[in-house]
Q: What sequence folds into this?
């Protein structure tokens, strides 16, 4: 296989951006579904949205924004040849990802506790659109959570690669692409926050 | 290839400023959602894309990329907006 | 040393190869098998209509057969067909590259394809029977039916992943790996068509992916996103499904148009007429084609405003397609035309695609659509486009590039005979369907009324001719593979880059990276056009 390995920095980045487009459109399908569903059930979305915890949503937003800062800085660090700082920042990004997931799990756990899950007792007596709101909430934050999980694993691997100098000052496109992926996860969340937590 | 192509380096202070702007915008968004329904909707439509744009432009280095990549990103965004917009040809007129 | 006799030829040297040419052949082999399975299913469905009532199979089996026929043909043959086989094989060669941008990703893409195919087959024999929803998986039936929809839908999801990765690879390849001098406007038109197609693959396939995931989630958790009792809207499923599946039609047809744009200049010994128009119309088709999806839903209870706008856009999308047809015919004008089998199929493509396209425009008219919706007219129409269009272009491309790919020549006489059989059989089968549909025969019906019986017999007879033609065509290829005489480097007198290298191509494609100094079809240097 060695004859096919070539280093095309721009090519690798174009490939990654194209992959991000596919991720973006994957969520895009759900945004289409959300937009249509909300337009057909405005009141129900309004009242159901009141039940999501704004502080939790905002906390997770700040966590992701900060993690985005960390990974962007990690790339700056590796570009400047500061391996140690890059390693720390990459590790911190992954830690933020884990923290986000813990928060999310707690939030889902509380909702489950109140019987708010598809076909759960907490939704049985509600108007039709509220079950839909929570259905979409689980699908969209669930898919996003899976992406956070994947990104956390990816960044952990990157931390290892930085420490082994597979990712280094003159060849860091892997870290840069992982960063792009992580930022996309952040961007998706930027949209999810107002769609769900601030819908009331 | 003896000399590898390299990306643009964004200095730490710039990154910090962008982060600060993002946090402030989030605060504004939450604040607006407390004021009134109309304010919430307008804040969502205006501030959310602005936040996303900051992340794309600075954190994702789009500002420093070639025009062709910018065009690609713009195309992808436009496609989704058109899809959602055209859906409302049905939803809004039922 | 060619790419075929490298590495001793053990199985592993194929299924672990990152060589774009070997991967192209792997796709070709697997797709041919699935194609014939689906042809067999199609013939079986026609056989059933030898009688209007109970005959040969149960109604449930019939439902399963049209579903499986659709799923295999759409997801395993027509959508991936030209890009995965000829795109993989020829895209790097046509732009003077050694391979695609991400060779290992390309191999991964092939494995997703195999996995998807395996899941599709598995869905037939496990669970509570093969899916019976039709390939469109419309809710609520796809959520309620007890048959094995979940696995079939998962198969389509994985195949979508394969398609996305191929598209991603092609876009990057075209941007990054063009040989020196290969400017955008010197690229062969097949490359342009692959570029437009790849963008559709990348941007809309994820939407069908998530839609199919939603079907699975609904089946397991009953969340209710498409269930009116929970505030959901089944029409949103149709919107999301067609947001992908209509552009998917252009994933199927645009590369076919690209292949035709290669074949016609070669056998006319003439530069293509309207290079820019053909290149940009591919992009225009990709663009407009993504904005017409709801014309599949005119009878579904959508708002009138949507009906009106989508009808208008449907008419508009016919324009870039027509531009291509006019340019192909203009290319023939005053050309030195050689009626090789590949050319014959290519010209048949233009004829059959024109019928398919024009019947499509008719369906775009709202009033007529109400009458024609869900009838055999629709079945006839999309077979003219998908089979008469993409299928015939696939055969034309195979006849054109077979010597280059395998290093063997096929016998011309059986190829001509196969053309006669397929072309005649095709028109008898599907034109009859257009007539049946206009008379009111609904699609997907197990039984038919007596007044439709004679036409059904004619269509069934056509299916036999068509199947005989396909068997002739492919057995000729298989014979050629073993006994065909050695092909020259340039048997047709083509002048795009693939004809400058030996047949079959060397492993690295080019001994040294070519420098391109002229457009792809410069048959008459010094003269414009």
A:
């Amino acid at each position: 296989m060695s004859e096919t390995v070539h280093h095309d920095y721009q090519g690798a980045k174009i490939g990654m951006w194209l992959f991000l487009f596919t991720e973006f459109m994957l969520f895009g399908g759900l945004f289409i579904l959300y937009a249509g569903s909300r337009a057909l059930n405005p009141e129900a979305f309004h009242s159901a949205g009141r039940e999501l915890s704004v502080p939790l949503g905002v906390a997770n937003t700040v966590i992701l924004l900060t993690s985005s800062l960390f990974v962007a800085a990690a790339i700056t660090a590796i570009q400047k040849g500061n391996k140690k700082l890059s390693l720390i920042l990459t590790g911190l990004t992954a830690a933020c990802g884990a923290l986000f997931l813990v928060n999310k799990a707690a939030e889902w756990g509380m909702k489950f506790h109140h019987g708010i899950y598809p076909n759960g007792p907490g939704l049985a007596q509600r108007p039709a659109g509220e079950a839909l709101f929570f259905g979409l909430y689980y699908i969209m934050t669930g898919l996003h959570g899976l992406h956070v999980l994947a990104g956390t694993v990816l960044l952990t691997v990157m931390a290892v690669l930085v420490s082994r100098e597979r990712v280094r000052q003159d060849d860091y496109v892997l870290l840069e692409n992982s960063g792009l992926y992580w930022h996309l996860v952040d961007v998706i969340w930027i949209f999810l926050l107002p769609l769900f937590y601030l819908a009331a | 290839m003896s000399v590898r192509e390299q990306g643009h380096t964004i200095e730490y202070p710039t990154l910090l400023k962008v982060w600060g702007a993002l946090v402030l915008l989030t605060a504004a968004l939450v604040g607006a959602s407390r004021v009134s329904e109309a304010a919430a909707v307008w804040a969502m439509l205006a501030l959310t894309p602005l936040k996303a744009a900051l992340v794309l432009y600075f954190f994702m280095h789009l500002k420093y990329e070639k025009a062709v990549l910018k065009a690609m990103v713009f195309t992808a965004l436009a496609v989704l907006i058109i899809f959602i917009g055209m859906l409302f040809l049905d939803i809004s007129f039922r | 040393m060619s790419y075929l006799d490298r590495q001793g030829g053990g199985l592993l040297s194929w299924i672990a190869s990152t060589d774009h040419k070997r991967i192209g052949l792997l796709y070709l082999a697997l797709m041919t098998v699935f194609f014939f399975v689906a042809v067999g299913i199609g013939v079986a469905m026609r056989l059933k209509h030898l009688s209007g009532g109970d005959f040969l199979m149960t109604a449930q089996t019939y439902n399963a057969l049209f579903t499986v026929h659709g799923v295999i043909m759409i997801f395993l043959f027509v959508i991936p067909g030209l890009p995965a086989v000829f795109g993989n094989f020829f895209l790097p060669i046509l732009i003077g590259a050694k391979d695609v941008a991400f060779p290992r990703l390309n191999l991964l893409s092939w494995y997703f394809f195999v996995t998807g195919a395996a899941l599709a087959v598995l869905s037939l024999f496990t669970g509570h029977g093969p899916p019976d929803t039709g390939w469109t998986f419309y809710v609520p039936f796809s959520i309620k039916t007890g048959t094995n929809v979940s696995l079939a839908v998962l198969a389509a999801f994985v195949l979508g992943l394969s398609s996305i990765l191929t598209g991603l690879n092609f876009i990057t390849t075209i941007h990054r790996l063009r040989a020196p001098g290969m400017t955008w406007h010197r690229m062969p038109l097949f490359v342009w068509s692959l570029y437009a197609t790849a963008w559709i693959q990348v941007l809309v396939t994820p939407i069908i992916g998530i839609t199919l995931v939603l079907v699975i989630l609904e089946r397991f958790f009953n969340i209710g996103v498409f269930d009116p009792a929970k505030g959901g809207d089944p029409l949103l499923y149709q919107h999301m499904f067609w947001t992908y599946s209509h552009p998917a039609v252009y994933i199927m047809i645009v590369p076919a148009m690209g292949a035709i744009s290669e074949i016609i200049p070669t056998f006319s010994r003439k530069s293509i007429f309207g290079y820019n128009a053909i290149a940009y119309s591919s992009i225009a088709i990709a663009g407009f084609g993504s904005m017409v999806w709801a014309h599949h839903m005119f009878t579904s209870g959508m708002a009138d405003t949507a009906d009106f706008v989508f009808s208008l856009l449907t008419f508009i999308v016919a324009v870039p397609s027509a531009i291509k047809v006019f340019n192909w015919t203009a290319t023939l004008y005053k050309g030195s035309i050689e009626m090789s089998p590949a050319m014959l199929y290519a010209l048949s493509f233009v004829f059959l695609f024109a019928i398919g396209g024009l019947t499509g425009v008719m369906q775009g008219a709202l009033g007529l659509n109400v009458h024609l919706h869900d009838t055999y007219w629709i079945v006839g129409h999309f077979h003219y486009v998908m089979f008469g269009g993409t299928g015939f272009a696939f055969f034309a491309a195979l006849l054109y590039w077979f010597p280059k790919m395998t290093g063997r020549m096929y016998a011309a006489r059986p190829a001509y005979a196969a053309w006669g059989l397929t072309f005649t059989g095709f028109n008898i089968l599907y034109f009859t369907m257009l007539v049946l549909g206009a008379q009111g025969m609904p699609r997907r019906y197990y039984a038919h009324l007596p007044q439709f019986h004679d036409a059904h017999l004619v269509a069934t007879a056509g299916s036999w001719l068509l199947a005989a033609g396909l068997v002739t065509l492919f057995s000729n290829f298989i014979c050629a593979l073993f006994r065909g005489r050695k092909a020259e480097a340039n048997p047709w007198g083509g002048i795009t880059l693939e004809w400058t290298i030996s047949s079959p191509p060397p492993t690295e494609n080019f001994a040294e990276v070519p420098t391109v100094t002229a457009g792809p079809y410069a048959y008459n240097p010094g003269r414009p056009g």
In short: Residues 14-34+60-385 of chain C form a domain with the Cytochrome C Oxidase; Chain A fold (CATH 1.20.210.10). Chain C touches chain B through 18 residues (CB under 8 Å).
